[in-house]
Specification:
- There is one protein chain.
- This protein is of the alpha+beta class.
- It is about 50% helix and about 10% strand.
- It has 3 helices and 4 strands; from the N terminus they run H-E-E-E-E-H-H.
- Strand 2 and strand 3 form a beta hairpin.
Length: about 100
């Protein structure tokens, strides 16, 4: 799908949010990592898939601030998807990843 064919109306925000939760859980429980900078700016959308980027600053669960970073990541995602739904839709309309 090219940029002109993309429409935010085609996006299922609940599915996207679920994918982000799943990716975060895989990092946490599978790799023992916390993203530590998860926000809407570190997620790409590609053909129905959420892709987390900027993983380089992730920290091990043993890091002294891992719990703090994880809480911030969760707060960022929850806030963005609940309070900025319209802004998110607008962002995807003007900045699609193909």
């Amino acid at each position: 799908m090219n940029d002109k064919e993309f429409s935010a109306k085609q996006l299922d925000l609940e599915d996207l949010y679920s994918q982000i939760i799943e990716s975060t859980a895989k990092m946490l429980y599978g790799a023992g990592l916390v993203h530590a900078d998860l926000s809407e700016y570190n997620i790409l959308y590609d053909e129905g898939r959420a892709v987390l980027i900027d993983i380089g600053q992730a920290v091990l669960l043993s890091h002294p601030k891992a719990e703090e970073f994880f809480a911030r990541d969760c707060k960022n995602m929850s806030k963005y998807f609940t309070t900025n739904r319209a802004a998110f839709m607008f962002f995807l309309e003007i900045m699609p990843i193909s």
